[in-house]
Amino acid sequence: MSDMTDRAEYVEEGDLYFFSEGTDRRLYDKLGAHPCEQDGKRGVRFAVWAPNARAVALIGDFNGWNGAAHPLRCLGNSGVWTLFVPGIGHGCLYKYRIESAADGSTTEKADPLAFFAEQAPRTASIVWDLGYRWNDAEWMGKRGGRSSRDAPISIYELHLGSWRHASDGWSLSYRDVADPLIDHVRRHGFTHVELMPIMEHPFYGSWGYQVCGYFAATSRFGTPQDLMYLIDRLHGADIGVILDWVPSHFPSDAHGLGHFDGTCLYEHQDPRLGFHPDWKSLVFNYGRREVRSFLISSAIFWLDHYHADGLRVDAVASMLYLDYSRKEGEWIPNREGGRENLEAVSFLRALNEGVYRDFPDVQTYAEESTAWPMVSRPTSSGGLGFGFKWDMGWMHDTLTFVSQDPVYRRFKHASLPFRMVYAFNENFVLPLSHDEVVHGKGALAAKMPGDAWQRLANLRLLLAYMWAMPGKKLLFMGAELAQPYEWNHDAELDWRGFEASAARRGVSRLVCDLNGLYKAMPALHECDCEPRGFEWIDAADAQTTTLSFVRWDRAWSAPIVAVFNFTPVPRSGYRIGAPMQGSWSEILNTDADVYGGSGWGNYGSLTTTDVAMHGRPFSLDLVLPPLGAVFMRWNGNGSGNGEGHDPDTPR
What we know:
651 residues; alpha/beta; Immunoglobulin-like; TIM Barrel; 3 domains; 6-stranded antiparallel beta sheet; 16 helices; 24% helix
């Protein structure tokens, strides 16, 4: 007997009190299709919310899609219709035929709480037993420590359909992708993968962001158990899994949630509230209590049944503002006359409270692009309650800066240190995501100025800068391969070009080493979200377009100094104030030969001299590589040779 059968076999009106109150976090145990036993007979119990329906019938392959064969009964005033059908089970196809009391129209709808669905363009729901024998107890017992604010979190974002294709040109399945993905992620040192939405969606070109099935893993890549297998295997390899989740909008496809029972049930009726102009989609009515139960239950479902370690919540800004992407007259102010969506704010707080109450060892990540305060602060303090927030400001300022010709970078130098004005107002993730390499924006490598060598040098410099800055890391697939063209969801990554290019393989090796240092050096991750872990050495040297700062561990005993040269000019005798006296070793240099660089840098270890600099009584005399970064680790009070290194001297 499956775990789903054990949970609930009957639904009565009293079972739906919390659903109608808006506080049910496990609606999937009550609504949907559940194989079970009733009155000694095996079958399936169906339940669907359609409060404005005159009649609801079950149609499927088991009754010839006959709308008269299996009428459902309504449970009192709950708006939920239910039926037990004996003799059917796992794998049956079904829909609901709904006659609206509002206008008498009849529509055929997929089950909003179906666990599986036909592959698009077919639209029927499938009765599915979610039983699976998990083997990730060890991971589940320790995952809280792997996703805490003081842990190294380095996220590899990927789109399953276009990461890698099989020999026949089709996308790899959930099961087939497991081995190569694990090998790739472990080799590069990422701690987590983030899967772009794998909830069922009718249009592949939406990348999963137009969700119809909020409880169904997309059938494009296999069955629910196949996805569980992939997550189970990733956990077995000590890799966490974050799922992209989209409560901000949904498509208007006829079989979906829109106009579900002949009325605007899940969405607002007024298009100024219920229609999203950017995506031509429908907006959830967050003020409706049953809708809140539906969405919060969806979030809990993926943590519960699929052992997800976190949820990245898409397009939070579009939820928070009533005037988001709308002109004057196209939106309705809130009850206080403002532009804030108070119902969405309340929903997001309830969402995070529910998630952390039931799963305190996971994290939620907000993609929020504005200055809304306290996104990643507790709801008890007035925050939205997310664990982390994407730092879109850092992403925008940094990419704008590095995409300029180095000749002009000194005029925009102040845009880089500006980030530290707000860097600890939230628990930030630094994202270089899929959104930055589509729609004509070009690949990361293609954004960089200069010739072929300089573009990759700039890319290595950007990656080192990202890994050195406070904040967790997120990199979209392909950047670690130095892919030269922007992402195409219909094609796999350029694996052949990568294997044929030593320079591109050098970027890959740098990502491996950056992640290795990030995990090994407490100074680079322990205080990602605390101001005590960061200190400028020199943020104002616009003339040479260099930056230098210190990352501290919590005990202030093992600092890392990071220095960046954003020009193609190598700089010998570049002196910076040192935070600690004694010996320092160069532990990473993006211009090293192994990364495809020219070999400028600091050979062995350096020793501070008693020359005051940057407000410190001692300093280091460095060689800065062109378009390069160096990381220096304090060794203690030993001595070093203090000599710089030029490309003509063997390493």
